[in-house]
Amino acid sequence: MSRQNYTFTSESVSEGHPDKVCDRISDAVLDAFISEEPEARVACETFATTNRVVIGGEVGLSDKDKLHDYMGRIDQIARDCIRDIGYEQDKFHWNTCEITNLLHEQSAHIAQGVDAADNKDEGAGDQGIMFGYATTETAALMPAPIQYSHAILRRLAEVRKSGAEPALGPDAKSQLSVVYDGGKPVGVSSIVLSTQHLDEALSSDDIREIVAPYITEILPEGWISADTAWHVNPTGKFVIGGPDGDAGLTGRKIIVDTYGGAAPHGGGAFSGKDPTKVDRSAAYVARYLAKNVVAAGMAERCTIQLSYAIGVSQPLSIYADTHGTGDVAPADIETAIGKVMDLSPRGIREHLQMNKPIYQRTAAYGHFGREPDADGGFSWEKTDLVDALKGAV
Q1: Single pTM value for the model
Q2: Which whole-number Å values give the CA distances from 346 to 138, 287, 342, in the listed order?
Q3: Among 141, 219, 231, 330, which is most exposed with the fewest C-beta within 10 angstroms?
C-alpha cells in the first residue's frame, strides 16, 4: 500500500535559467536541421558562460553541401534564441556574446548502427532505459508539484515579455511542497520563488508583491493558506542572472524536464537530440503509453519502462507498474502495449510524427503535461490510443 498522507516537493526553472538557455539553443539547432531534412541526424550540446556560448556535437544531412550551408547559420540561431529569452545584459547580450561553433559531421560508426540497410530494420541510436509516467493528480495527468511549478514560471515569463511586469528578468526558479491527503494533492506547505529582477533597489518583499498574485492565480483555490510558508528571493538581490551569473549546459535539468522526481528517469537528456535517439523518442512514447493507460481508466497511476540496444530495432523489454491503483494487471498492460504500437525507433517517430521542427518549444516548462499542437508538437500528450488499449486487454 503506497503512502496516502505526505508532502512531496518538485522544482522548475525558467527559460532564462543558464541550463535552459543551452537546452533552447540545442533544440533550435535540431529544428533547423529537421526543417531542411526530416531524417537529419543531430546530437547538439551547448555550453554558456559570461559573454560566451560554445556549441558542439555531431550533425548529419544527406546533402553535404547543405550541411556546410547550415553550419554557417548556427551563430544566428543561437543569437535569436538568446534575444527571444530576453538577455541584453552587459556580460550576456544576444548581439555581443561570442558564439563558437564546434559541430561536426556524425560519426559513420554511429550511423551504421542506426541506418536501415540490406533489409535490416533501423536500429536504436543508443542503448538505454526510458521511463514514462502518468497520474490522475492533475487534468494533464501529471504530478501536481512539477506541473504547477512549471505553470508559475511560464506565467511569469508571459507577463515579463508582455511588458506587464518589466521589473522581472529572464532567470528564475520555482519550488512547491505539495501536501497530499488520502493520496490526493490538497495544498502547498511552502512556495519558493527566486527571480532575477532588473531594478537593484527592489527588496524580496517588493518581488513577492509582484509575483504573489500570479502564483495565487495558478494554484488551485484553497491550496494557499495562512500556514503556507513563502520564500521569495530568500537570498536578497538577484540582478545578475543567466549564464553571466552561473554557467549553463545542455541536459542538466532532466528531472525538471520530466516528472519532478515523482517518477524514475532513465538518465538520458532530451534536448539537442534527433528522434532516432531513443533517449528522447522512447521517453516520449513511454509517457504517451502511460498517459493513455491512465486515460483509459486502467489505473490511477502508471509507470512504463522501455529498454533498447544500439542497432537493435525492437525494445528488449516492456515493463508496467500501476502502483497498486490498477483495474488491469500490469502484465496484461505490457502485452497490450506490444500489440497496439510498433515501438521500433521508426515506428515511434511515424506514429507520433516526430520528424518535424517541433523541439525548440519543449526546451522549457516541461516536455510533458503540455497541450498537443496542431502542427504535431507534443503529439505524445494525445490520448488517442485509449480505445486500442482497451481492445487489447
Answers
A1: 0.95
A2: 31, 17, 8
A3: 231
